[in-house]
Every structure is written in structure tokens, then in C-alpha cells.
Design brief:
By secondary structure, this protein is of the alpha/beta class. It has helices at 14-23, 31-39, 43-50, 67-76, 80-105, 137-144, 152-160, 165-171, 182-196, 203-208; strands at residues 2-7, 27-30, 55-57, 63-65, 110-114, 129-134, 174-177. α1 packs across α9 and α2 (31-39) packs across α5. The radius of gyration is 18 Å and the shape is globular.
């Protein structure tokens, strides 16, 4: 089974690329979605203890993270990012391991781990190939600043924690250029999939098949 790490800075089009890979029957594990799910469940009490006042209760009385409040707390104290990642990172890795085991047991030939902070967390050493989704800075900023809760300050804070796009491109095995129309990105992916299908992976046996947590 070939494990593909799909990454790229904020606003580059990772989710759009992942959706196209799914049309080829390739299962995708979305780290952002895993975090979202954890914020609605097991991680919420931990985050409330670490960042008081950043959670609320849903209609059923379940404690969930208020992402806007958490974001404000992190902007006020940037050192909090490291504490948050120390809590969330092992839980995400455990969920990814479960996803990969299910895929392996079902006989999947290709799988994708969509991880925004792939290089930053050392995840590139746990996959067989890395695909970076990239576009010029002006296009990236234009996309991201259209988001309702985004500001230049918040975007700058997010980008400061991410490996620069140029470095991501230099470390990638494959690059998908998303600067043009969406159809051009799809075409690149459609041409790439047959190349990936020819590759043989070893990352699962080397890093994920053990019952012990991945480092």
C-alpha cells in the first residue's frame, strides 16, 4: 500500500485536490476534519483545562470547543500553539493509524493523508511520497482573506507557523499547481494517479503496522 502525504499552505487548494483524488477511488484521511471531530468530543475537556473559557456546550449539553474563542486565545498567547499541538497531535496520529490499518486490511493500493502541517510535524518521514499543492502568494492571500473570520493579522500568525511554500515545493516529490482554473488542477491529478499506481510503498510496514503509537 502506498501512503501519500498531501500538503500545502493555507489557501492553496488541498481540499479541492483531495476531492479530485477521491473521484479516483482513493481514500483520504483529512487531518483538519479529525481535529474538528476531536474538538467536538474527546479533546474539548483537555482544551478547556489548558485554555479556560474556550469551550461551550451544544444543544445536547456536550462540551465542545469554540474555535473563535480558542483562536483569540492563541493569538493573545502564541506560545499556546505548542501546548495545543502537544495535546492534539497524538490523538490525530492515533486516528490516522486506525484509518491506515482499515485501508490496509481492505486491500487498498493507494491512500492519502491530507495533513496541512505535514513537514512541521515530521509526517513527511511517515509516508512514501509527498504531494504539495501550491500557488503564488498573491492568489493565496486573495483566497484566504475572503474567509469571513480571517484577517491579515490572523493569516500572518498562521503562516508564521507553516513551512514556507518555497521550501515545501523543494521537498515535494510531486507538485500540483493550483494557480489556474480548477480544471487545470484536476488534469494534473488525473495524469498523476497512474504514475502513483506504479509505485510500491513501505511506509505502512515501517511506521504504522505496529500496535505502538507512531512517534
Amino acid at each position: 500500500m502506498l501512503i501519500i502525504g498531501l500538503t500545502g499552505s493555507i489557501g492553496m487548494g488541498k481540499s479541492t485536490a483531495a476531492a479530485r483524488f477521491r473521484t479516483h477511488g482513493i481514500a483520504v484521511c483529512d487531518a483538519d476534519q479529525l481535529v474538528h471531530d476531536l474538538y467536538q468530543s474527546a479533546a474539548a475537556p483537555m482544551i478547556e483545562r489548558a485554555f479556560p473559557g474556550t469551550t461551550t456546550q451544544d444543544d445536547s449539553g456536550t462540551l465542545i470547543v469554540d474555535r473563535q474563542k480558542l483562536g483569540a486565545a492563541l493569538l493573545a498567547d502564541p506560545t499556546g500553539f505548542a501546548r495545543l499541538e502537544d495535546m492534539i497531535h497524538p490523538m490525530v496520529r492515533d486516528a490516522e493509524r486506525g484509518f491506515l490499518r482499515n485501508a490496509h486490511n481492505s486491500g487498498a493500493a493507494l491512500v492519502i493523508l491530507e495533513i496541512p502541517l505535514l513537514f512541521e510535524t515530521g509526517g513527511d518521514s511517515l509516508v512514501d511520497v509527498v504531494i504539495v499543492v501550491s500557488s503564488p502568494k498573491d492568489i493565496q492571500y486573495s483566497r484566504v482573506l475572503q474567509r469571513p473570520t480571517m484577517s491579515r493579522q490572523k493569516l500572518g500568525s498562521l503562516l508564521a507557523r507553516q513551512t514556507p511554500d518555497a521550501e515545501k515545493r523543494a521537498r515535494a516529490d510531486y507538485i500540483i499547481d493550483t494557480s489556474g482554473p480548477i480544471e487545470q488542477g484536476w488534469e494534473q491529478i488525473d495524469k498523476l494517479v497512474p504514475q502513483l499506481e506504479k509505485l510500491v510503498g513501505s511506509a505502512y510496514d515501517n511506521h504504522w503496522s505496529s500496535p505502538d503509537p507512531v512517534a
